[in-house]
Design goal:
The complex is a heterodimer of chains A (290) and B (425).
Chain A lengths: L1 H28 L7 H19 L3 H27 L3 H21 L16 E4 L2 E4 H23 L1 H11 L1 H6 L4 H23 L9 H16 L4 H21 L5 H15 L7 H8 L1
Antiparallel strand pairs in A: 1-2
Helix pairs in contact in A: 1-5, 1-8, 1-9, 1-10, 2-3, 2-4, 2-8, 2-9, 3-4, 3-8, 5-6, 6-8, 9-10, 9-11, 10-11
Chain B lengths: L1 H17 L2 H7 L3 E7 L4 H19 L3 E3 L2 E3 L1 E7 L9 H13 L5 E5 L3 H14 L3 E3 L6 H8 L1 H4 L2 E3 L4 H19 L3 E7 L2 H18 L2 E8 L7 H9 L4 E6 L5 H9 L5 E6 L7 H4 L8 E4 L11 H14 L9 H18 L4 H9 L3 E3 L2 E3 L9 E2 L6 E2 L1 E5 L5 E5 L19
Parallel strand pairs in B: 1-4, 1-5, 5-6, 6-7, 8-9, 8-10, 10-11, 11-12, 15-16
Antiparallel strand pairs in B: 2-3, 12-17, 13-14, 17-18
The chains are: A mainly alpha (290), B alpha/beta (425).
Chain lengths: 290, 425
């Protein structure tokens, strides 16, 4: 039982990390609010389903086009909406959250309701790890989450684009004086964040069915992880995912599953009281001190 | 003179054309049916589809005779979102109030998705004396309220199955498996909502304790939960032979997939909404053979022994180009409209009190079998479609078909154990 809890706790943590990564890249690292994140996640899921089932094109092509379309949506969100309220964080949050609602409700309006919306798993079957059966899809999720975390860390610390993302969040005017076009990188950040949401959708959604209301849950989970880990910190996201993921799994296994829902909320409350900037957000901590 | 006669003739012809029934229906004031359901949920969406089928059928055949005047039904549907997590009951009550006060609904048809909302709305419809027919909410507390304070709560009726009847079908199937395969250990996994909790509680008290079964564990998951490994690991560790799931949320499909991938050696027999419809076979990669699922009302599944259920199922498919997927609610939604039509015609009025009296006299044979209300305003369900309405247990076969396995009166096949699971005796 304990080993099973550890295995599924790790998988749960990986799911949380994957869900939070794109949101963290956009809002945490680049400082551009994208509260339509959950909607883009659902958009990518439904789009892949449409390409696969309604249009009937190849799986890999469907996935590729969905990721590309999600990136385009990200760019459009910036160019059409965010650019008008850029710098006013509350307005950015409200505008993108509203857009997210519109996207999700449009899916509902166009009848994307029911249990037939599912995506295929990468490889069918399961494997026994120390007597605990785990399906291959969950193993893929864990692997991809670890890989993406590493990629995101290296990308934001060792590439020009990644450093530009961080620069526009730290001090936009200084970034402009250094030749960093903040609007270009802002839009690019939204595109990358949306692509990460799409990757998460394609990897995680095969576990169940695609449901419109799933978009809200994704946003809440991503927010919880980012608040606990500290906005903008890839390492913080990883550690927060592990903390919340394991706390949820242990709660489900050793207390009652219906308490799981409280874990993220308690974690958010505790972090906001003890360390409002999050466990690993040095940049925000400095801002708070100033 | 001749010209005058022509004009008079033309006038008379126009007059008679005007008073033919179809035109009268269009001209007469419509009977407003308020439909406050959860359109984001399959049961809500397909339920509304079925209401529209019934309303169109009735309107095209002349409408409803209200005291000698043919009047059409008019549906005013609002997505009250009562099924969604986080939507407060007060919001759902507001929607009901809007339908009654602003849209002037004469009847709330197919109201209040969740029991929590339905129970709260009973007070409101009682205040305005508007009949409300429920089609999804399942908590037996509704009947208790009607019985204990009849004058206040008599306006509420339930057409769909309630938790007690569900227990009877589930219990019957469990008893059958106990006899046939010697099973006596069960693990209950339920959604943390009123109807599912009530169903689990009643199953323990009224079924398992009486049958001598051991409930080796029970876990409740909040709406929206997406990992069920904890319950499945516990079920396996405790040696459960049957897992009884009770869920109506989309994410419960994950439980089915995990049950298969974690190779849990137990029969999955209960209610998981994504497992009920024909699309589940493809959605779950053709790996659900052996799983048993309750279909709360026949008609949602065609039952060859009840021809009207097959007729209704095919009617839906013909109109919408796809079969009914929800195991709960579409057939009651359709029947609700015909129940109302008959009651209104008997009452000859839309007065709430008169309608209640006539609704209580309902006795019709429809897609769900014979439909009559008990003294708690609940449609009576049983095992003989000529006497009562019917629910059933179906099982997925290896070829991806749904066959009814319980009750025996309408069964198409015997219960088969999934591959790899052996009888205990």
């Amino acid at each position: 039982m304990l080993f099973g809890t550890l295995v599924y706790g790790f998988i749960n943590s990986s799911i949380l990390a994957l869900l939070a990564m794109g949101f963290n890249l956009t809002f945490g690292i680049s400082g551009v609010a994208n509260f339509a994140y959950g909607a883009i996640y659902i958009f990518a899921g439904f789009l892949t389903w449409i390409f696969l089932n309604s249009i009937g094109i190849n799986y890999f092509l469907s996935v590729g086009i969905s990721i590309l379309c999600s990136m385009i949506v990200g760019i459009l969100v910036y160019q059409v909406i965010i650019i008008r309220v850029r710098g006013l964080i509350l307005s950015e949050v409200m505008a993108t959250f509203g857009l997210g609602l519109v996207i999700m409700e449009l899916f509902r309006y166009f009848d994307f309701v029911g249990f037939r919306y599912t995506l295929p798993v990468f490889i069918d079957g399961s494997i026994s790890i120390g007597g605990v059966y785990v399906d291959y899809q969950r193993l893929f999720i864990a692997l991809i989450a670890v890989g993406m975390t590493l990629f995101l860390y290296l990308f934001t610390h060792h590439t020009k684009i990644g450093l530009s993302f961080r620069a526009i969040a730290q001090e936009e005017r200084t970034a402009l004086t250094l030749g960093i076009n903040s609007d270009f990188y802002g839009a690019l950040s939204l595109a990358f964040g949306s692509a990460l949401a799409a990757v998460a959708a394609i990897v995680i959604l095969p576990l169940g069915t695609i449901a419109v209301e799933g978009g809200y849950e994704v946003l809440i989970n991503a927010l919880a992880v980012c608040i606990v880990g500290g906005l903008g910190s890839t390492v913080g996201i990883l550690i927060a995912s592990v903390l919340i993921g394991y706390a949820q799994t242990f709660t489900a296994n050793y207390l009652e599953p219906h308490w799981m829902i409280l874990v993220s909320l308690i974690a958010i409350a505790v972090v906001l009281i003890v360390k409002p900037s999050g466990l690993f957000s040095h940049q925000k901590e400095l801002e708070e001190r100033i | 003179m001749r010209r005058k006669m022509w004009i008079l003739g033309l006038f008379l012809a126009l007059f008679f054309v005007w008073i033919i029934p179809g035109h009268t229906v269009r001209a007469a004031e419509p009977i407003i049916l308020g439909v406050p359901t959860s359109l984001g949920f399959l049961e809500g969406k397909e339920g509304l589809d079925c209401i529209n089928i019934a309303v169109d059928e009735i309107n095209s055949s002349g409408g409803v005779n209200v005291g000698g005047v043919q009047r059409p039904f008019k549906v005013v549907a609002i997505d009250a979102r009562g099924a969604e997590p986080g939507v407060p009951v007060s919001e759902v009550i507001k929607v009901h109030k809007k339908l009654i006060l602003e849209d002037k609904a004469h009847i709330i048809a197919y109201g209040s998705f969740r029991s929590e909302c339905a129970l709260a709305c009973m007070d409101m419809v009682g205040k305005y004396k508007i009949p409300m027919l429920l089609g999804t909410a399942m908590s037996p507390a509704m009947e208790k309220k009607v019985k204990t304070n009849y004058d206040k709560y008599k306006y509420t009726f339930r057409v769909c199955l309630n938790a007690i009847y569900l227990v009877k079908y589930l219990g019957g199937a469990m008893g059958y498996m106990g006899k046939q395969f010697g099973f006596n250990k069960v693990f209950i996994v339920n959604q943390d909502v009123a109807w599912a909790r009530a169903t689990g509680d009643i199953m323990i008290k009224a079924v398992f304790s009486k049958m001598g079964w051991k409930v080796v564990g029970r876990q409740a998951y909040p709406t929206g939960a997406s990992d069920f490994s904890a319950a499945l690991m516990k079920a396996k560790a405790q040696g459960a032979q049957v897992i009884l799931p009770i869920f109506d949320m989309p994410q419960s499909g994950i439980l089915v997939k995990q049950w298969k991938s974690m190779r849990i050696p137990a029969v999955l027999a209960g209610f998981i909404s994504p497992l009920a419809g024909p699309a589940a076979w493809k959605s779950f990669d053709k790996k659900i053979d052996g799983a048993m699922n309750a279909i709360f009302e026949i008609g949602n599944i065609p039952c060859p022994k009840v021809p009207k259920s097959v007729e209704f199922f095919n009617k839906y498919k013909k109109r919408y180009g796809r079969p009914i997927e929800a195991g709960h609610s579409p057939a009651p939604a359709y029947e609700t409209i015909y129940i109302l039509k008959e009651a209104i015609e008997r009452a000859g009025s839309l007065d709430g009190d008169k309608l209640v009296v006539e609704l209580e006299k309902t006795d019709r044979h429809g897609a769900m079998g014979r439909i009559r209300f008990n003294d708690g305003h609940q449609v009576i369900y049983g095992t003989d479609p000529n006497e009562t309405a019917m629910g059933c247990m179906m099982q997925w076969t290896k070829t991806g078909e749904r066959v009814i396995v319980f009750p025996e009166s309408i069964a198409e096949a015997k219960i088969q154990l999934p591959e790899g699971l052996k009888p205990a005796k």
